[in-house]
Structure formats: C-alpha cells, structure tokens
From TrEMBL:
<dbReference type="InterPro" id="IPR015590">
    <property type="entry name" value="Aldehyde_DH_dom"/>
</dbReference>
<feature type="active site">
    <location>
        <position position="250"/>
    </location>
</feature>
<dbReference type="InterPro" id="IPR016160">
    <property type="entry name" value="Ald_DH_CS_CYS"/>
</dbReference>
<dbReference type="InterPro" id="IPR029510">
    <property type="entry name" value="Ald_DH_CS_GLU"/>
</dbReference>
<dbReference type="InterPro" id="IPR016163">
    <property type="entry name" value="Ald_DH_C"/>
</dbReference>
<keyword id="KW-0560">Oxidoreductase</keyword>
<feature type="domain" description="Aldehyde dehydrogenase">
    <location>
        <begin position="21"/>
        <end position="469"/>
    </location>
</feature>
<dbReference type="InterPro" id="IPR016161">
    <property type="entry name" value="Ald_DH/histidinol_DH"/>
</dbReference>
<protein>
    <submittedName>
        <fullName>Acyl-CoA reductase-like NAD-dependent aldehyde dehydrogenase</fullName>
    </submittedName>
</protein>
<dbReference type="GO" id="GO:0016620">
    <property type="term" value="F:oxidoreductase activity, acting on the aldehyde or oxo group of donors, NAD or NADP as acceptor"/>
</dbReference>
<dbReference type="Pfam" id="PF00171">
    <property type="entry name" value="Aldedh"/>
</dbReference>
<dbReference type="InterPro" id="IPR016162">
    <property type="entry name" value="Ald_DH_N"/>
</dbReference>
<comment type="similarity">
    <text>Belongs to the aldehyde dehydrogenase family.</text>
</comment>
<dbReference type="InterPro" id="IPR044086">
    <property type="entry name" value="LUC3-like"/>
</dbReference>
Length: 472
C-alpha cells in the first residue's frame, strides 16, 4: 500500500466521476498526507442521485433471490479485498491493523453483509376469510442517502448500504471528509459486481458547500440513514422534513456502566477496559461513564488501571500497537479540554497528559461527579470518569439523567439482579458484564436524543421499506 493515495474517485452510474479539485486526507498517526479525495459539489450530487433514481425501478423489480445473491457477492468481494481496505482504514483513521482494529473492522463488515443477505421480508397475510383477503407487502423506498462518520468508515458504510440494497433500494454514499478513502474504495469495489447506478458515491471537504445538508434536503432522496453526532443528526431531521424523508439516525450517546457491589473487580477489569476504550473510545456505544459501588470502588479502579497500564498506544501500522491516535485535531482538543477540567476536581489514576501529535494515552479519572464536564459531556475519546456511589437508586438516577440514551451496562455476579437494574436504564441496548458488543441479528438504536429508528436484523431491514396493504 502506498503512503499517499491519489487514485480513488467518485462513482455515478457505474462510471468514475472526476472533480475539479481534491482535498487532503491526513494520517492521524504520522501527520502526513494519506491521500486526496474528490471535492464534489451540487452537480456531482445531482449526477449520483439521478443515477440511483434511474436504476431504482429495475432493481426494485428483481427477485428476492437475486438481491440476496448480489449481497452475498458483495460480501465475498469485500473479503477478497480485506487487506487493501484495512490498510486504507489505518492510513486515514489511524487505528491499528491488528487486534480490534482495521482488520477486525473489515471482518465485521463481511459478517454484517452476509447476515443481511440472509434476511428477507416476505408478504404477510393479515386476513384470509370469507370476508376477503388482506395482504401486507414491504416495498422499497427509492434512493437512500447514506452519511457515515470517521470512526468505522467501512463497517458503518456496510451497515447502511447492504440493507438498502437487500430491500430493493439504490444508494448514494457520502463518507466523512476525515476518512473518505476506504469508503470510496468500497463503493468502487461494489461497482465491479453490481448493476450500474445501484451504489454511487460523493465526497466533499468541510467547506462552503455542505454535502450532508444538500443530501438531506434533496427532493429525489427518499431516505437518509445517518450515523454521527446528535447536533448534526438534528439538522438532518430538520432539513429532511420538507420532503418527508424517512430517517434512521444513530447519534451520539454518553453510555453509563453501573458496577454493583457483588461484582468481582478482577473478573470484570478487561471487559470494563474494552467497553470504554475500544477504538480508542471513539465509538458511539462505548462506555463513557462508570458508576462503581463504594464497597468495591477502589478495587475496581486498581484492577482497571492495572489492565490499562499494559496497553500499547502507537502508530497503526506497527503490529504491536493496541490503540492508535485520536483521529483528528478537533476531537483531540475536546478530550484534552475535558481531561484538563476533570483534573481540577478529580484524581488521575492513569494517563491525563497529551502525547505527541494526536496520541492521547488511556486516561482514568476518579473522584468526579455529575457536575463535571467529563461526566455529562460525551468525550468520544480515551478518557473514562469513574464515579463512586453508595445507593443503586442514585446510580440509576445519574445514569438516566442525561438527554441521550444509546447504550448502557450492568456489572454483577448475579445476572438476575443485573437484568433487573438493566431494565430500568433509559437506553436502547443494555449489556450484562460487557459493553458495546453489537450483533447483526439484534436491533440497535437509541432513545431520547440518541437516535431515531433502529439498525440490524429484520427490524433494521424494515426501516428501508414502506408498507403497502392490499385488500382482495
């Protein structure tokens, strides 16, 4: 893999689209230019949408078996190009190639693609009596606009694109300007197999033209599926209102973990670490607040710090790196600001000082409370606040106090007790003795300001369809 990628382009109607200008994509691990991505505007967006719109009728008319076969072929093709895509992700996103890094992400993308290919939404008979027959059909929407973030650029694109195709829609994919290269290459690979116009791509720098806003207000895009921040998701919902777009919005969270007094500190330390620090904490459903009962607070902190102290942070192409850099300067500065404020009132147990470039060590800070910004503001990076509690009712109240609710977790030696606490948490998903382990067969989405709609499984596939009922 070259150190700088210059050849990846946009695709519309199965053909490469050239743009007047390109923008730099930086490698967060080295600071060097990772590549140059096409800087598209309204004309390129209209061309991509037109291609998707023209391809929709024929694709919607294909059989369920044909669409399943196409999705399986896409999964095979991604797998065949796994190392190429993993190298691209590390080059632009910074995460390590090994471990729970880029190769793991591509493996997840392949698994999700294959599971999605196996789903179907058959016609359902609601009534078949002497009074008549009532049938319910799931029909594709049309053109789906996919807007993806920079933390998992290939896997989240697959989460968006494959169910859209499987249910008979066509797609225009827009990656984050921070990490466009692997996503654009993914669309190129799909177009080596699929009919022209089914999957099209646009990319744009953060500048005067807002590609996301143009997509969410475009009259020929029937649905937007968006993964990203709460603020941006709210804007997508607002700009999509005039055209009554269907929406799936998987937005930010500030996931709470609650450790009950009967938990075994040594047994849960590894799970706590990865629940909080997977992808360097740059995960919507990472654990971002940890509430620990007073009886075992110090023991949990000690075990967690002992595990975290052995984690190697380094440039992603180094095989011994376990965690990489923070992906971009704005996010790095946010983490540094929140940690600096937390140090004024809390106790730094590990880390706490920025490294060189965009590297920030795993940071654990105890002695914080609800009024500390590191607790109530989503850090989206490698810093975990630990909050001491004495009454589980208080822990639940604090966990539920925020206006977001994506995920949560309960840690205990008694699963029944843990489930009882879990059912009282105000979030879309709760894990027992783990955190963040999403699966393609389990619906995933948030409550409150963390989301609108769900992804994955049959329920997620339904989000790409409208219902039509026929009386006969």
């Amino acid at each position: 893999m070259k150190d700088t990628i210059e050849t990846i382009g946009l695709i519309a109607n199965g053909e490469r689209v050239e743009t007047i200008s390109r923008f730099e994509v930086r490698n967060p691990g080295t600071g060097n230019v990772a590549g140059y991505a096409p800087d598209a505007g309204q004309d390129e967006l209209d061309r991509a949408v037109s291609a998707a719109k023209a391809a929709f009728p024929a694709w919607a008319a294909t059989s369920d078996e044909e669409r399943a076969a196409a999705c399986n072929a896409v999964a095979d093709h991604i797998e065949a190009h796994a190392e190429e895509l993993a190298q691209l992700i590390t080059l632009e996103q910074g995460k390590p190639l090994g471990g729970l890094g880029s190769r793991w992400e591509i493996g997840g993308a392949v698994a999700w693609a294959r599971y999605t290919a196996a789903l179907c939404l058959p016609m359902k008979v609601l009534q078949d009596t002497n009074e008549g027959k009532v049938e319910m059909y799931r029909k594709p929407l049309g053109v789906v606009g996919s807007i993806t973030p920079w933390n998992f650029p290939v896997m989240i694109a697959v989460w968006h694109i494959l169910p859209a195709l499987r249910s008979g829609n066509t797609v225009v994919s827009k990656p984050s300007p921070m990490t466009p290269l692997a996503s654009l290459r993914l669309v190129e690979l799909m177009n080596e197999l699929l009919p022209a116009g089914l999957v099209n791509s646009v990319s744009a720098a953060d500048g005067a033209f807002n590609m996301g806003a143009a997509m969410s207000s475009h009259e020929d895009i029937a649905k937007i599926v968006f993964t990203g921040s709460c603020g941006t998701g709210q804007k997508v919902m607002q700009s999509g209102a005039e055209t009554m777009k269907r929406l799936t919005l998987e937005m930010g969270g500030n996931d709470a973990g609650i450790v009950l007094p009967d938990a075994d500190p040594q047994a849960i330390a590894e799970g706590l670490f990865w629940g909080a620090f997977i992808n360097n904490g740059q995960t919507c459903a990472a654990m971002k607040r940890l509430y620990v009962h007073d009886d075992i607070h110090d023991a949990v902190c000690e075990a967690l710090v002992a595990y975290a102290s052995n984690i190697k942070v380094g440039e992603g192409t180094l095989e011994d790196s376990v965690l990489g850099p923070v992906q971009n300067k704005a996010q790095f500065d946010k983490v540094a600001r929140l940690v600096a404020a937390a140090k004024e009132t809390g106790q730094v147990l590990l880390g706490g000082e920025p490294g060189e470039g965009l590297f920030y060590p795993p940071t654990i800070i105890a002695g914080l409370g609800a009024d500390d910004a590191l607790v109530y503001e989503e850090q989206f990076g490698p810093a975990l606040p630990v909050i001491r509690y004495t009454d589980v009712e208080d822990a639940l109240a604090q966990a539920n106090a925020l206006d977001v609710g994506l995920g949560g977790s309960v840690w205990s030696s008694d699963k029944d007790e843990a489930k009882a606490v879990a059912q009282r948490m105000e979030c879309g998903t709760v894990w027992i003795n783990g955190h963040g382990g999403i699966q393609p067969n389990a619906p995933f989405g948030g409550v409150k300001k963390s989301g609108f709609g769900v992804e994955f499984g049959e329920e997620g596939l339904k989000e790409y369809t409208d219902i039509q009922v026929i009386f006969s």
